[in-house]
Amino acid sequence: MNYHVIINQGRVADRTDGALVGARNAGQALAEHLSTKPTIIGQPSPAAQDDWRQALDNANETLRELAEITRSVLDDHQIPLLVTNTCAASIATLPVAAAKHPEAAFLWIDAHGDFNTPDTTASGYLGGMALAGACGLWDTGHGGTVDPRNVILIGARDIDNDERAMLQNAGVSILAPEHATPEAVQELVADRPVWIHVDWDVLEPGYIPAAYKIPSGLLPRHVAAIFAALPTESIRGVELAEFEAGDPNIPERLSIEFIVETFQHLT
Question: What is the similarity comment for this entry (predicted)?
Answer without folding.
Answer: Belongs to the arginase family.
